[in-house]
């Protein structure tokens, strides 16, 4: 199975065609309307809810049997009928126009998949099995719904409102990461859980004033040595160190699958074999180079 590339599409005001007027089409339409898409639904008949939305002007209804002309100007197409031959015709017409198409519950015909969603707007978590096991993806979504705090959406909105101020108060990446760690784990989230957004905003602004006046902390060096070759054998402590590191220094033996567990924005540097011969000197050089930046550095070595 080909690996899928995950992305989030801005469909605000953009035409999206749904072929089919049943319960599945209704479900897909609801999600697209929530994203601001200009939805067009083509089908001989519609559910009661879809008819109501059409009457309210929330969607455009293309009445009658499928016609290829429906695809004109569409950004995305969703085939949601119970007729596989018709769905295949819709997909072929979309391919001819270089329009991405999803055929519901038919990954072999689809050029994109619609993932299971955990919605903490504006924070959205998407889960996909690439069409291989959609029920498993839905079960995982159910578990994640219980894991993620309902107040995370409000926290994301608050952080977005003050993004420019956060960048000004915390100009380097390490400082911003520490601020966001505090934001997620500290009193701001507690205030949002209690429904007190004004207190949350006041606490955030006070912390920004403090952060702007603080000198950067000393750089910190952590060793992951020896590092397991199998990422499944990584300990929780080692995983935490990988997630905290701003800089990864590793030898050539470290498995790429292990490095992929680290933060995507961490700087990676491959050290040659000679650098590891004197660990004390190596540590001093690294800390001297990182002085004044407050970086968290992970040194990762794997036995040959």
TrEMBL record:
Coiled coil: none annotated. Residues 122-146 form the Siroheme synthase central domain. It comes from the Bacteria. It catalyses: precorrin-2 + NAD(+) = sirohydrochlorin + NADH + 2 H(+). Gene3D superfamilies: Cobalt-precorrin-4 Transmethylase, Domain 1, NAD(P)-binding Rossmann-like Domain, Sirohaem synthase, dimerisation domain, Siroheme synthase, domain 2. Residues 151-208 form the Sirohaem synthase dimerisation domain. Keywords: NAD, Oxidoreductase, Porphyrin biosynthesis. GO terms for molecular function: ferrochelatase activity; methyltransferase activity; precorrin-2 dehydrogenase activity. One of its GO terms (biological process) is siroheme biosynthetic process. Its EC number is 1.3.1.76. SUPFAM superfamilies: NAD(P)-binding Rossmann-fold domains, Siroheme synthase middle domains-like, Tetrapyrrole methylase. Pathway: Porphyrin-containing compound metabolism; siroheme biosynthesis; sirohydrochlorin from precorrin-2: step 1/1. This is precorrin-2 dehydrogenase. It comes from Castellaniella ginsengisoli.
């Amino acid at each position: 199975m080909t690996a899928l590339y995950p992305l989030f599409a801005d469909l605000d005001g953009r035409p999206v065609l749904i072929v089919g007027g049943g319960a599945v089409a209704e479900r897909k339409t609801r999600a697209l309307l929530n994203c601001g898409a200009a939805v067009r639904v083509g089908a001989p008949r519609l559910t009661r809810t879809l008819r109501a939305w059409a009457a309210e002007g929330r969607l455009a209804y293309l009445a009658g049997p499928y016609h290829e002309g429906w695809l004109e100007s569409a950004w995305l197409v969703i085939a949601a009928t119970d007729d596989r031959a018709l769905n295949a015709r819709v997909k072929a017409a979309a391919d001819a126009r270089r329009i991405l198409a999803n055929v519901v519950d038919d990954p072999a015909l689809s050029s994109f998949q619609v993932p299971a969603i955990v919605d903490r707007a504006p924070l959205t978590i998407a889960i996909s099995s690439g069409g291989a096991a959609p029920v498993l993806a839905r079960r995982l979504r159910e578990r994640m719904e219980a894991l993620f705090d309902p107040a995370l959406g409000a926290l994301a909105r608050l952080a977005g409102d003050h993004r420019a101020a956060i960048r000004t108060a915390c100009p380097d990446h390490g400082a911003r990461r520490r601020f966001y760690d505090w934001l997620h784990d500290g009193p701001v989230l507690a205030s949002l859980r209690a429904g007190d957004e004004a207190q949350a905003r006041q606490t955030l602004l006070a912390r920004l004033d403090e952060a702007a006046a603080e000198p950067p902390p000393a750089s910190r060096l952590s060793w992951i040595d020896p590092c397991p070759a199998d990422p499944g054998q990584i300990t929780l402590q080692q995983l935490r160190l990988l997630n905290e590191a701003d800089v990864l220094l590793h030898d050539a033996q470290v498995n790429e699958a292990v490095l992929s567990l680290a933060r995507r924005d961490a700087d990676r540097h491959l050290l040659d074999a000679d650098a590891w011969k004197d660990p004390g000197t190596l540590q001093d050089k690294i800390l001297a180079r990182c002085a004044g930046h407050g970086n968290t550095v992970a040194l990762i070595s794997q036995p040959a």
